[in-house]
Amino acid sequence: MDDLLREFVTETNENLDVVDVELVRFEQDPTNAKILDNIFRLVHTIKGTCGFLGLPRLEALAHAAETLMGKFRDGVPATADAVTLILATIDRIKRILESLEHEQREPDGTDDDLIAGLRGMVERLSAAPAPPVEEQAIGTLTPQVLERPLRPGEDSLDDLERAFRDTPVDPVGRRAKPATDEAAPKDEEPARGGSQSIRVAVDTLEHLMTMVSELVLTRNQLLEIVRRHEESEFKTPLQRLSNVTAELQEGVMKTRMQPIGNAWQKMPRIVRDLANELGKQIELEMQGAETELDRQVLDLIKDPLTHMVRNSADHGLETPRERRAAGKPERGRIRLSAYHEGGFIIIEVADDGRGLDTERIKAKAIAHGLASEAEVEKLTEAQIHKFIFTPGFSTAASITSVSGRGVGMDVVRSNIDQIGGAIDVKSVAGVGLSFTIKIPLTLAIVAALIVEAGGDRFAIPQLSVIELVRARAGGEHRIERIRDTSVLRLRNKLLPLARLSRLLGMNTDKAGDVENGFIVVTQVGSQTFGIVVDAVFHTEEIVVKPISSRLRHIALFSGNTILGDGSVIMIIDPNGVAQALGSAGTSQLAAAAAATDKVAADSELMTSLLLFRAGAPQLKAVPLSLVTRLEEIDARKIELSNGRHMVQYRGHLMPLVSMGENVRVRAEGAQPLLVFSDGARSMALVVDQIVDIVEDRLDIQVASANAGVLGSAIVKGQATEIVDVGHFLPLAFEDWFRRKEQPARIRRHSLLLVDDSPFFRNMLSPVLQAAGYEVTSVGSAREALALTGEGQRFDVVVTDIEMPDMDGFEFAQRLRNDPRTADAPVIAMSSVASAEAIERGRRIGLADYVAKFDRQGLIAALKEQTQLGCAA
Amino acid sequence: MSTNGDDNLNEYVTATIGGQLFGLPIRRVQDVFLPERVTRVPLAPPEIAGVLNLRGRIVTLIDMRQRLGMPPRADDAPPMALGVELRGEFYGLLIDGVGEVLKVPDRAPEPNPVNLDASLARLSAGIHRLEGLLMIVLDVDRTLDIAATASAA
């Protein structure tokens, strides 16, 4: 394409974008002559250039639009119809420009429809009362003759003559002040910057960026060399070179930065069109449009942002009538804002519409099999809202198709994930909705952790690294192994581990070193896992280079880079590692739930279960959280003392209890054990084989009459016996539950235990009984209320918070409101221990709030409450 | 691509791989270099010997013996590499040794004999008869088309 034409296309496109925005502004503020002047000037420029370049279609369109706008300048009110028509014209011009860019000529076709419309509009507006133009014009007409019919967009000489006479002659009114006089200098300065800026092709900048990256690498190499020579005369100049390079790098990075306003430019127009179409009144507010970010990032978020704004206008905001009925101003608001925070840019899209429809999302989540009805009932609203980000939640194929509130948000989320960003949603029914997006400022240069695995070095982007943990055999953090799966217990959470060298299929000779290593704790979306590496070197700012197309299929790599020493290393893609770890650990539900508030909530739904075999081929399971440690000990170390199997363990004798008669304590080889500890005491259950750790819902379907078995549940598709740990513990120490000095009480306190999960009821009842309480357990708040309604009295109530039908809060409230039960302290157990929940509990008078698996905490809380009760 | 140049010159950079003489059209060869500090790429197809930094560019190395289905090299002589470019990406073809630039008469190479080994025929753009020996013209594009070959196989 010839340069002139290319420049014209670029410039015109930019001008048109401005016209778009300005027209919408003008429509809202039709008395603002300055805006109109600006528009008029831009369209006029386009028209003029078109004529110069010989582009008849564009010229005709621009001319017709200009004529109509001239009417506005004459004081004719700008109707919505007229503005719509002009906007349509601009769209047509853009389409023509597009094909001009590709084919270097105007496309075939005619614009008679639009031109006729524009002319008709001009006539209608002219017919409106008292535009003085008509009169003057008629008076000065001299007939002119043209040999051929007028081409579209051409005006007769008469008209030109009239226009010519009109414009300069009329001494009154706004049009007497030409755009250049007053408006232009003020408007132009901030908008165009005059000769303060020049246009540079993106390729030039990209090339510059590449060269600077090379310079950085060369500088790093030089520094490396000089470091080896203590006294070198190169030292000082090199230091200087180093500083200059750093500044140059920063400068070039800056040229890639663009204000986010560039991505917002089309928003006013989109909102305006939607508002007209939908009969809504919408105000678009934009804050921080000058906030800058890398153009590559900008390009990637443009579409998601547009989609979200469209969603807000289309589905979030109500019609004026609905808003009036809801007691809100008729005019709805959409607010776009952006600001910097650290190396990130935070973008918010908010509206004051109706918010998300929680019930619909629930229904859809259930319909899509993302969660069961019972699970959904236990989720908070915020957790339910997160479902809109779950992959596959919307059926929309691309983010441009709009068919329902929240539609396409999964696609938006995946776009944002791709650039290492995060998105969150807050919605209050009837009040509004806001999305918050956090994305890195640039993708070209990232901080990365350089690690070693299998003898080679790799880079892990620091963005997704949460912390580093050193694992050592016998140390504080130990890698535990369950057959082929490694896990790390980190602050009471179980972290799935992946050894990088193994993921990459590298043969490691250090097979004996499985217990040592560095664990890079990594988070991707809602998934947290540990990447085990052999060594960690340092962090380095690396220039990300795209990986060869021949290697792009390897999901574990996101790119490669050249290090300071000149060698190439591969950049690990944490997303790929997460995928390689498999969905074994996390279901979609867990992902959706965990994305919300910490991991606390999903442990209610998903329980980590330890699967093992003992005495029978079928699988047995026990909640992993109850098990302190998994051990494999040398069978020869097992001693028989006083008819019982014992083993020396960490300086103490630990009794072994067989899980059933069929489980033989081995005489040789490795003996797998499940160790349970409480304070200094430990006991171990002897099992045949530890099979796996899985996450699944613990839903006991068939209760068992056998001691030691709570019942059967389906775990990962297989019928599995859920073992009652409480049954075995006293077999090792008869006083397991009682040994804390328990003065003989005259009266045992009565306790009401309310939990919808039979497992927890069965597990807790014996524990509480052993602690000296008379336990009555029921499966729902209604049953409990039925008991108290009958006049049964309890000294203390322990209730689960997350229950279907009536939750613990409501239940506690009812107890408080009933004078018969108002005195009984209520202790709540919950897996969701958010500050919010605790505060809510305090308000309704909960005596205490303990975490669900915290047995000791519960006993302590009970003791405190019942003693208080006695004292009172 | 066409292995006949548009002009009259039919010049080839010659290379030996597993004792066989190959020729690459001279305008396809950008560099001849000794590969150093090669980073192996785990999980990569076997033909890819690794990546390296050549004057600031990341170059993907293709093991030509592996690519041609030949036995691996004995580790005595260091391999050479021919740098080629395809669609903005840089590749190094690992060969046993580089020979002189040969100018062949301006005529199309002869078609592959029907009994040419399949893995050779796949990458051959024809054969030039030289004095006393045969030179296989290497089809560079097909040589680099690794993913496609892998999926076709």
Describe this structure in a few short sentences:
Chain A is of the alpha+beta class and 872 residues long. Chain A contains 28 helices and 35 strands. About 10% of the residues of chain A have low confidence.
List how many beta strands of chain B DSSP finds: 10
Helix share bin of chain A? 40-55%
- Distance between the terminal alpha carbons of chain B, to the nearest Å? 23 Å
Q: Assess the beta-strand content of chain B as a share of residues.
A: 35-45%
Instruction: Compute the separation of the termini of chain A in Å.
Output: 92 Å
Q: What oligomeric state do these chains adopt?
A: heterodimer
Main structural class of chain B: mainly beta
The percentage helix of chain B is 10-25%
- Summarize the helix and strand pattern of chain B as letters: EEEEEHEEEHEEHH
Q: What can you tell me about this protein's structure?
A:
The complex is a heterodimer of chains A (872) and B (153). With 872 residues, chain A is an alpha+beta fold. Chain A has a 6-stranded mixed beta sheet with strand order 10-14-15-13-12-11. Helix content of chain A is 40%, strand content 25%. Chain B is mainly beta and 153 residues long. Chain B has a single domain (6-152), classed as CheA-289, Domain 4 (OB fold (Dihydrolipoamide Acetyltransferase, E2P)), CATH 2.40.50.180. In chain B, 13% of the residues lie in helices and 43% in strands. Chain B has a 5-stranded mixed beta sheet, with no helix packed on it. A 5-stranded mixed beta sheet of chain B has the order 3-6-7-5-4. In chain B, strand 9 (124-129) and strand 10 form a beta hairpin. Chain B is globular, with a radius of gyration of 15 Å. The A-B interface holds A 213-214, 217-218, 454, 456, 504-506, 545, 548-551, 553-554, 556-557, 560, 562, 566-570 and B 37, 39-45, 48, 51-53, 56, 58, 60, 87, 89, 91, 144, 146-147.
